[in-house]
């Protein structure tokens, strides 16, 4: 089982819903060629928050303000019945720097009204709109026909909205 993060930097957050979200076109690894948030796998001894901040720095060069990093979702992705990845999802409305392309990712700002769901993981259209509107969600998603996960079929899901979510690792003692 892999533990991973996603971070969604937001612009224009004066109202309830932000105007824009920074996505990356993933240039290598799982989900290559699709849009997603910056993110990746937890390293040894790293908390999910530390991972989200590090991955956003490494993938697009933005320095997220830790005080503005808000956990929005905890998503479990199953492949052929087994837990494949637990993913901690964050919103961030304060950060420094301008996004840059790196070997891992090409960043692009999108209006929240024009997110390219047809070029993203199949599950994203089910939870990302709620996350961008400030809600919390715990979700479980079933894929079949892998590995790899990004060649499997999305077959089922279960979502719990507006629930309290913890901000620690699901498998490690440090939070
Ligand atoms: C199954 O549905 C998924 N949906 C979304 N939106 N994101 C997903 C899904 N499954 C995995 N992810 C995310 C979780 C991670 O942020 C990335 C995969 O990261 P990767 O395996 O490339 O991890 P890195 O640490 O960046 O890679 P390196 O090992 O190359 O450093 O996808």
TrEMBL record:
This protein's UniProt keywords = Hydrolase, Magnesium, Metal-binding
Membrane-crossing ranges are none
**Which GO molecular-function terms appear in the entry?**
8-oxo-7,8-dihydroguanosine triphosphate pyrophosphatase activity; dATP diphosphatase activity; metal ion binding
Name the InterPro entries on file: 8ODP, NUDIX_hydrolase-like_dom_sf, NUDIX_hydrolase_CS, NUDIX_hydrolase_dom
Give the Pfam families listed for this entry: NUDIX
Question: In the UniProt record, does the keyword Magnesium occur?
Answer: yes
Q: Which domain of life is it from?
A: Archaea
Keyword Disulfide bond: yes or no?
A: no
**Its Enzyme Commission number?**
3.6.1.56
Protein name (database record): Oxidized purine nucleoside triphosphate hydrolase
